[in-house]
Backbone:
């Protein structure tokens, strides 16, 4: 199945318990700034997590460090994996994408050809929540199941 086909777009993203824990710990370790990173794997199953630097550190935005992103991409390709998702946290918000998140995702798709999932860790509620989204053809976010 090619990435970006209608069927893969609706497929659940599988994240193992250990990667989920690591991602959550990364997010919970930063109370004032969003954290971000990349999940890589095969066939919609995440098997590697790459924590990245947020070069636009604030409580409401993130930008992957572009130099670090190149190193990560090299490693992913050396392991013959593919980029499945970018994750980031909302330290004082829910796991819902902002308009800026949508714009960034649309740009990543346009410039990097990344038709990937966007995982958001919301830390505002009593329990942290993790949700995943994909852009549809109209560049709107649609939630996808996490398994
Ligand atoms: Zn966001």
Residues:
């Amino acid at each position: 199945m090619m990435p970006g086909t209608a069927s893969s777009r609706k497929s659940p993203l599988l994240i193992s318990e250990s990667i989920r824990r690591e991602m959550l710990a990364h997010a919970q370790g930063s109370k004032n700034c969003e954290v971000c990173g990349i999940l890589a794997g095969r066939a919609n199953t995440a098997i590697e997590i790459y924590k990245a630097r947020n070069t636009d550190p604030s409580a409401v935005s993130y930008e992957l460090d572009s130099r670090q992103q190149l190193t990560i991409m090299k490693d992913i390709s050396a392991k013959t994996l593919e980029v499945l998702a970018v994750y980031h946290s909302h330290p004082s918000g829910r796991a819902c994408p902002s308009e800026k998140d949508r714009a960034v995702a649309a740009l990543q798709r346009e410039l990097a050809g990344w038709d990937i999932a966007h995982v958001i860790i919301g830390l505002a509620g009593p329990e942290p929540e993790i949700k995943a989204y994909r852009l549809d053809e109209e560049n709107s976010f649609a939630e996808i199941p996490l398994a």
In short: The helical segments are 6-10, 17-28, 66-78, 99-112.
